[in-house]
Amino acid sequence: MPQATGVTRPGGRTARTRAAVHAATRELLAESADGTVEIAAVAARSGVHVATIYRRWRSAEGLIIDTIVAELSTRAPLPATGDLRADLLVWTTNLLRDVRGPNSLAFLRALTRAGGTGETELIDAAKFLEPRAREIQATLDASGATVLDGTDIVELILSPTYIRALVSAPLDPDTDAPRLVDNVIAVRDHRARAAERGPMLRPNAITSMMGACLNG
Fold it and tell me: CATH top-level class for 65-198?
């Protein structure tokens, strides 16, 4: 039976091309002083035609993001055991160690450049981040944390991690990882308690009720 268009066969030509391009990108990032790479250089190093790289990744920023996300997913996957605090603590500790390396800053700078070059590039960057986003959601789902979503993890763990790394003041894996994770758990518990009490009245609804009482 012929294979559907766009399906990547494990070990097939598409997989070999992606592996060669990723390897070349990692090597060039290690040699780069500013965390950038040129697609032409990746093509020359990998032996993959430049048109193939542009067709698959569209920009150098997308290529860097995809390469680093794939590396992180292999080297430091998010656990999904059902114990949210333990899973996040393992992942966050590894994350804080990783951001001390040069490739993590290249990742953040690539995201920044993608966001500043236009909507198309930002959409492309989001596409390459999807595997990591699915891992985060799988970890939340395994623990039954329905009151949390990926945005909470971005705001409470990823944002402070990368911002501090970007200003050359990286967080400490031993002391800051537990603190960041405990913030997530505190938000989860607070929302769970609020949900048990029922929906809270919004300020404008409270104002309307007070007005009705006073005028009644």
Answer: mainly alpha
Tens-place pLDDT, residues 11-29: 588 899 999 999 999 899 8
Structure tokens at 138: 């799988």
pTM of the model: 0.69
Type of residue numbered 99: V
46, 23 Cβ separation under 8 angstroms = yes
Domain residue ranges in the chain: 65-198
User: What DSSP letter does each residue of 55-79 carry, written as one string?
Assistant: HHH-SHHHHHHHHHHHHHHHHSPPP
The CA radius of gyration of the chain, in Å to the nearest whole number, is 22
Residues 169 and 162: their CA atoms lie apart, in Å, by: 10
Q: Give the integer Cα–Cα distance in Å for 166 and 42.
A: 25
pLDDT (tens digit, 9 = 90+) per residue, 27-41? 998 888 777 889 999
Q: How far is CA 173 from the centre of its chain?
A: 18
